[in-house]
Structures are given as structure tokens and as C-alpha cells.
Design goal:
Layout: H1 2-9, H2 12-21, H3 23-39, H4 44-68, E1 81-83, H5 95-103, H6 106-115, H7 122-142, E2 148-150, H8 151-172
């Protein structure tokens, strides 16, 4: 039985299946967190928004990282390989891989500015996405996963986070903490970053 789960968790299809299967648990986690935050004095809107962002960041990012960290057939035998020339691998990458790389940190890029107003800038999210991606690529190399650690993957992952941040930009102001009781902080742009 354990071997069956292990083989399921080690495939793209298995990761997708498990991600869909745990969706009810993610929804339950949002509900529990929101109710605990409301009980602690947060407004209902703030409690639900922050809970959804917290769980969404994890739920939306973990499957992509899981897929990136799946070992190849020569894992543990073949040493790590690197590709440090920007845009060299991009020309030969299949479309599905390009789209997948753009989506890996998209949830992070979309939800982090809503959850952490101090990071609500496209530049900061690009840097966060690049940093997270560089850590994952370094782990691939160090762990000998029979995968190529490529600067193009970092560029695509960071770009995906930045594009997702742009898509959520309209919501940044409404999530800045203005609905919190006693919120006094305001920036020159009119946003409140208390919370």
C-alpha cells in the first residue's frame, strides 16, 4: 500500500490527483483559521481574506514545487547540472513547461501582496519569486535529482509571480487593513498598511 502511494506521489498525474483530493482540507483550514481570527477580534472580512491568502499561498505553491522536486530516473547517480546562460533553454522548452514554470509561484505572486502589504509592489514580488526559485533550483542541484538547474527556470518563475502580482494589484488597496478597527497608518498613496 505504501509503495502505491509512493508511486502515485512521484508522478505528475499523482501530484494533480493529490492536490485535488486535499482541496476540501484546504477549504476546512480556511474556515478554521477565519473563525479563530474572528474570535480573536478581527473583522469578518479581514479574517476571511487573510485566512484565504494564507492557505492559498501554501495550497497554490506547494504542488508546483513538489513537481519541480520530483526526481528523474538517474537521481542520486547523475550529478546536478546547471544552465547559467539566460534564455538559452527557453528556445527549446516545450510550451507546457514554459506555462508550468510561469504558474509555479503565481499563487505566491497573487496572494502575498494581499496578505503582507509591505510586499505589495511588483518589484518586491519579482525579487521574492526569483529568490524562491533560486532556492528550489539550488536544491535540485544539491540533491542530485537528475534535473537541470536553469537560470531560465528562475526567470520564468519570477515572471509568473510578477504577472500574478499585476493581476492582483487592484485588490491591494482593499486588503491593506483599512477595515481593521483602530487602523491609523496611511501612506502617501492613501493606502493603510496596518494589520
Amino acid at each position: 500500500m505504501i509503495r502505491g502511494w509512493q508511486s502515485l506521489a512521484g508522478t505528475f498525474t499523482g501530484v494533480v490527483f493529490i492536490t485535488v483530493a486535499v482541496l476540501p482540507l484546504a477549504a476546512l483550514a480556511v474556515w478554521v483559521l477565519a473563525h479563530r481570527r474572528k474570535a480573536a477580534g478581527a473583522t469578518s472580512a479581514r479574517a476571511w481574506r487573510t485566512s484565504l491568502a494564507d492557505v492559498g499561498i501554501l495550497y497554490g505553491t506547494a504542488p508546483g514545487i513538489w513537481m519541480i522536486m520530483l526526481p528523474g530516473p538517474g537521481a542520486g547517480i547523475v550529478p546536478g547540472r546547471v544552465s547559467l546562460v539566460p534564455l538559452r533553454d527557453l528556445a527549446t522548452m516545450p510550451t507546457g513547461q514554459v506555462v508550468g514554470n510561469l504558474l509555479v509561484f503565481a499563487a505566491l505572486g497573487f496572494l502575498v501582496p494581499l496578505r503582507f502589504p509591505a510586499l505589495a509592489s511588483v518589484t518586491r514580488i519579482l525579487l521574492l519569486g526569483a529568490g524562491c526559485s533560486a532556492l528550489v533550483e539550488t536544491a535540485q542541484y544539491v540533491l542530485w535529482l537528475d534535473r537541470v538547474s536553469s537560470v531560465d527556470d528562475v526567470l520564468l518563475n519570477a515572471s509568473g509571480a510578477g504577472l500574478a502580482a499585476l493581476a492582483s494589484r487592484w485588490y491591494w488597496r482593499s486588503s491593506s487593513g483599512a477595515d481593521e478597527p483602530g487602523s491609523h497608518a496611511a501612506t502617501a498613496t492613501g493606502r493603510s498598511y496596518a494589520g
